[in-house]
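Hi everyone, sorry if this is the wrong subforum. Our group has a chain we'd like a structural model of before ordering constructs, and none of us has done structure prediction before. Sequence below.
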Amino acid sequence: MSSYFYVERGGSGRDSKRIDFQCQQAFHKLLDKMGFTGRKPRLVACGGRHLVYDCFVTRHSSGGTDYVAMWIDSEDSLADLEAAWAHLKSRDGWDQPAGAMDEQVLFMTTCMETWLAADRVALREHYGNEIQESALPPLVNMETLRRHDVQDRLSHATRECSNAYVKGRKSYGMLGELNPAVLEQHLPSFIRVRRILNKRL
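Answer:
Right subforum, don't worry. Here is the predicted structure as tokens:
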């Protein structure tokens, strides 16, 4: 089976190639933990979300691929978890390519930091005792929070840690350490991702 995932990643400039590698490795580790070892897609880390969309459209339109998907931040909360292209049209003005389906859009809602903040055990193991857990967002309705609020709270909670969180440059060190079962407890969008991947991979 031929599958391609185009993944949004933060960071830019001279570190972009290193961050691409870290991003791909982190998602590979997460997919392994989800049970997809041996049937993982080819992961391509792109820059900003618009580049992800462009790469997706090109691959989707060229054919010859069993499954091609975008894995991106939703940026805003979702009015309808299953209506991915309607969300992207409303928020980003992106047109749904001919033949593309909602299952080809995998969301981190509202951003990857929501995933990081959801797994408190992984946070403690990664950041140590210096993390201020009380500064983290509550675990209830996390996907309704504004992305900047989640990002700011994560940065604030780790400000005293030697490896304090920095978006992009230090985003992916922890991603591969997350427990998918914990994410499913708190994040409906992650449940959707697993359901789609169980079907497609």
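For your construct planning: The chain has eight helices and four strands. Helices lie at 16-33, 49-62, 84-92, 112-118, 120-127, 147-157, 180-186, 188-200.
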